Amino acid sequence: MGDIQEFSDLKFQGIKINYLYICKRKLWLFSKNITFENRSDKVLLGKVLHEYSYPKEKTKEVLIDNLIMIDILSDGSIREVKYSSKMKEADIMQVMYYLYYLKQKGIHKQGIINYPKEKRKEVLELTPDYEEKIQQALREIEEITAKSIPPPAQKQKICKSCAYFEFCWG
Amino acid sequence: MQKTLYITSNGRLRRHENTLYFESGEEKRAVDIENIEQIHIFGEVDLNTKALNYISQYGIILHFYNYYGFYSGSFLPRKKNVSGEVVVRQALHYLERKKRLFLAYCFVESAVYHMMRNLRERKEAESFLTAIEDEWEKGRFAISSVAELMGLEGRIRNIYYQSFNQFLPDDFAIEKREKRPPTNPINALISFGNSLIYSHTLSQIYQTQLDPTISFLHEPSEKRFSLSLDISEIFKPLIIDTLIFKLLNNHKITLEHFDEDLNYCYLNQDGRKIFIKELQTKLETTVRHRQLNRNVSYKGFIKLECYKLIKHFISDQVYSPLKAWW
């Protein structure tokens, strides 16, 4: 029962799990609606990719509980489409979170991450290890976003291509 | 870079299918709507809700100017970047006297710095530069209210404008700065330039989570988007004044570019075109940013100022205003 209780308390958009693994500062800013994605070329590229990949799939962009957005939904699996595999760990955790979320609702699926530009895919299965990791991640998101001050900027390689680059370093 | 469109002629903005056109007489020009950030309208332009709805889909801001080239208002599409958190904290910095004074001081400090920067290279203005320095050093530590700060800034600006007479053509002598309405060419130029920088600043603020109505140096009740006035203080001497010096000293703008109407003096259409073109070139000019290690345009620097304010409000980094280092 403990699990279910916690699940109903801690529910976030999938992108927050993704950000937790990319940059905690980005996660904090995003949680306060301080976003700069709308004018970023990289974000636009991602959008276009989502729109034009897999045109034959019918169930695209399925929003569940007004909270998590599944890119492509089919009988046995959920699929997430990503522009590049540079941040693979974050992508994996995002999909694992979706699988975990669906499992709480009694739905069991397989996860697939498609990197259409690289012609690669990752097939994922939710394991008890990952379930624990997800629960930990949810607690961590809760902790970070509850803070009144954002985590300080820390320079990483990926900063350069981030929509927040000028915000953090300018 | 997101582009700015200026419309100086008369005509009509029209949406036809999924293209926006500007039609003027026989001419019909498609507008590159994907890459436009703001449109400044000086001419007599007709548009309907169909066009407005389409424009707002792309988050494009329209700035309108009246017959005399004075700013009349803006059409702002539904704001996408809204953060309650930022607005609440921005308001907090207005309400706490010390916090407000700090920010107001920062804006003036940067404005004065850029005024002095404009005079530094000019031998003719040396005594004025010294006078400004004296006034600033004497006054700045004694300030205990925003009103006093405004007073000090006003005194410095007076000396600053007087110095213009030393290096601008005689046709453009400045007796005193007058705003409503400007009655001579130099005041008309300053007013025109300032209203342009005001609307450009508003465009940048609007793309961030800042609330343009909560300001620190100017009273929020003074003008609708008074934060735009605050931030403009930094960029008026840095962008507009240097532009005016250049245009006048190179005789690109002369007395023939002005019309006079009873008590008014204003730039005519040709004059406006020259001014706008030069301003746009300036706004797109880039400077190497030392922290970002990237080229940043003058327009980009306005946006960076907005970012720094947000960081200040969320207690991330204390605001330190721009002081042009190049």
TrEMBL record, chain A:
Stretches assigned to the DUF83 domain: 13-169
InterPro entries: CRISPR-assoc_prot_Cas4, Dna2/Cas4_DUF83, PDDEXK-like_dom_sf
Cofactor note: Mg(2+) or Mn(2+) required for ssDNA cleavage activity.
A Pfam family that the UniProt record links to this protein: Cas_Cas4
Broadest EC class assigned to this enzyme: hydrolase
Cofactor list: iron-sulfur cluster; Mg(2+); Mn(2+)
Keyword Nuclease (UniProt): yes
Keywords tagged on the record: Antiviral defense, Exonuclease, Hydrolase, Iron, Iron-sulfur, Manganese, Metal-binding, Nuclease
EC number(s) given by UniProt: 3.1.12.1
Single GO MF descriptor: exonuclease activity
GO biological process: defense response to virus
Function: CRISPR (clustered regularly interspaced short palindromic repeat) is an adaptive immune system that provides protection against mobile genetic elements (viruses, transposable elements and conjugative plasmids). CRISPR clusters contain sequences complementary to antecedent mobile elements and target invading nucleic acids. CRISPR clusters are transcribed and processed into CRISPR RNA (crRNA).
Family listed: Belongs to the CRISPR-associated exonuclease Cas4 family.
NCBIfam families in UniProt: cas4
The protein, known as: CRISPR-associated exonuclease Cas4
TrEMBL record, chain B:
Keywords: Antiviral defense, DNA-binding, Endonuclease, Hydrolase, Magnesium, Manganese, Metal-binding, Nuclease
Signal peptide: none
Enzyme class, spelled out: hydrolase
GO molecular function, one term: DNA endonuclease activity
Amino acids binding Mn(2+): E153, H218, E233
Biological process terms in GO annotation: defense response to virus; maintenance of CRISPR repeat elements
InterPro entries the record matches: CRISPR-assoc_Cas1, CRISPR-assoc_Cas1_C, CRISPR-assoc_Cas1_HMARI/TNEAP, CRISPR-assoc_Cas1_N
EC number(s) per entry: 3.1.-.-
Essential cofactor(s): Mg(2+); Mn(2+)
CDD domains cross-referenced by the UniProt entry: Cas1_I-B
Pfam families to which the protein is assigned, alphabetical: Cas_Cas1
Coiled-coil ranges per UniProt: none
Family: Belongs to the CRISPR-associated endonuclease Cas1 family.
NCBIfam families: cas1, cas1_HMARI
Subunit structure: Homodimer, forms a heterotetramer with a Cas2 homodimer.
Protein role: CRISPR (clustered regularly interspaced short palindromic repeat), is an adaptive immune system that provides protection against mobile genetic elements (viruses, transposable elements and conjugative plasmids). CRISPR clusters contain spacers, sequences complementary to antecedent mobile elements, and target invading nucleic acids. CRISPR clusters are transcribed and processed into CRISPR RNA (crRNA). Acts as a dsDNA endonuclease. Involved in the integration of spacer DNA into the CRISPR cassette.
PANTHER family linked to this entry: CRISPR-ASSOCIATED ENDONUCLEASE CAS1
Protein name per its UniProtKB record: CRISPR-associated endonuclease Cas1
Source organism: Caldicellulosiruptor owensensis (strain ATCC 700167 / DSM 13100 / OL)
Taxonomic path: Bacteria, Bacillati, Bacillota, Bacillota incertae sedis, Caldicellulosiruptorales
